[in-house]
Design goal:
Helix Hairpins, 5-stranded mixed β-sheet, 5 helices, Immunoglobulin-like
């Protein structure tokens, strides 16, 4: 019987050593700043860390279960393999084992449900007091963004409108009213850990609070037509003073 070991795949010790070094360095790639990222993009929202933490918990639990189950499967395949002179035995079952492997997964699922519910309620529940309210209306194939003017209200004559350009003040809670003109779109802000469908005839409300300044992208995560691939927008997170200066400049340009 031929035995298979790691050396069959990595005949040279240098190859195996390089692989181990790469695996050990992976967390540095995942959480490092700048350059290519091999994990989540940088989290720049107030609830981004909570979403990432929940993902890591689910990944750890399911990963541990995967290795335990696959390890048990391999052990049974080897331990109870067909052998000459050994008769197979039929086992009806074990009540204690069945209770254990039913109760433990149920407890894990219940824990994950409660943990995710807290995060979901925080993000999707009633928003905290906001300092800015704006509107995003999706259409094939653009994001139409409306800001309130000096009167602080939407849908008045002094509103400021942009296309595919979303500016947000850092540190402030922003309430977003999301809708669609035509088909279902999906506003996806990876760095905010936020995704929400824009449905015709409905207005969805969501909130964000940026924690870092920077430039990011808006993508549509719903196949919305032949031009879906080019439905991109850009997010600029800046200081409140810089945001007000930009808003005033755009208003002057539109009123000229």
């Amino acid at each position: 019987m031929t035995r298979i070991s790691v050396r069959h795949f990595f005949p040279h010790k240098k190859c195996l050593t390089l692989l181990l070094l790469l695996l050990a360095a992976e967390p540095a790639w995942a959480f490092g700043s700048g350059g290519a990222r091999f994990w989540f993009p940088e989290a720049v929202s107030s609830y981004g860390a909570q979403v990432d933490r929940l993902f890591v918990i689910v990944l750890a639990v399911t990963g541990a279960i995967f290795f335990l189950v696959e390890g048990a499967l391999l052990w049974f395949l080897i331990r109870y393999r067909r052998r000459d002179g050994v008769a197979a035995a039929y086992v009806h079952g074990n009540v204690r084992a069945e209770i254990i492997w039913t109760v433990i997964p149920a407890a894990i699922v219940l824990y994950l449900a409660l943990a995710s519910q807290r995060v979901w309620a925080y993000i999707q529940g009633p928003p905290p007091p906001h300092q800015l309210e704006l509107e995003i209306k999706a259409e094939q194939f653009a994001w139409n963004i409306r800001y309130p003017g000096p009167d602080g209200r939407l849908h008045t004559t002094d509103d400021v409108e942009t296309i595919n350009q979303l500016h947000l003040p850092v540190g402030q809670v922003v309430l977003i009213n999301l809708s669609s003109k035509d088909v279902i779109h999906s506003l996806f802000l990876p760095q905010f850990r936020l995704k929400r469908d824009a449905v015709p005839g409905m207005t969805g409300r969501m909130w964000v609070q940026a924690t870092n300044t920077g430039n990011f992208e808006i993508v549509c995560a719903e196949l919305c037509g032949l031009g879906h691939y080019r439905m991109r927008g850009f997010v600029v997170i800046e200081t409140p003073d810089a945001f007000q200066a930009w808003l005033k400049q755009v208003q002057q340009e539109q009123s000229a």
